[in-house]
Amino acid sequence: MSRYLHPASERDIDRLGPAAHSVQLYEDAGEFRRMWEAAPWRVQVGPGGDAAILRPWREGRGVLALQALWCPESHVPRAITDLESVARDQGFARLLSPLVASEAVRPYLRAHMTPCQSIVTFRMDSRSAQEMRGQAPQGVVLRRAVPEDVPEILALDALCFDEFWSYGTKELSDYLVTNRAAVAEGTDGLIGYTLCTVAGGAGTLGRLAIHPSARRRGVGTALLRDAVGYMARQDAAMVSLCTQEHNVASRSLYTGVGMRELPGRLELLMKELRR
Q: Which structural domains are found in the chain, ordered by start?
């Protein structure tokens, strides 16, 4: 069977750039174009406006992630089959779905993808967050992260998250250049950190990690309030975050600062690729 998806043309990129920006995948159409110019295989298109945007998932994980898949549900299985070929050609061992609403996973299951993570979303409007600031517990200092913090942040990240979610050195270093990272520093070094992004009028908390020995001391609340307040003051109309459904402690923390858990669940699905 011939492939129904194929690499995007320059005209396709002009058409898709605003859409990629509108769903906050890229800061603007120019950033989207630069990504495509560096790796044209990462944007695949099909008939009727169908399109897929791809990116490597974390460093050295062998996973190719679907940032977005725009097509009718009936086209999903065939799109996944074509994207498996793209992933194999680029040396990846697994293909990861985009975040899919739990009620919309059936086409991905028909493509033989397996649910691997269940995600919940929290949100707060900026009016509730404008004056929010972090007040660190005694003996703890909150500050902006600097490149020299990367080794300690990576060590903390590996301690707090399983391999699937943990960052690599280049990923984290690049994040510090283009987005905001803050750390909580105690007498023995870093004990927590946050990553957050503001784009297109929306703020996203990408990470909150606290060393196990520093939990339940107010460090997480201080870092969370610091990040949420920062995003609101950067003209984010709302701030949001995602966390794993089973992470009860984090969900309680987010609710405790006034964030609202949205109804429904999002799913990530994975497929192992046969050589």
A: 6-96 (3.40.630.30), 122-261 (3.40.630.30)
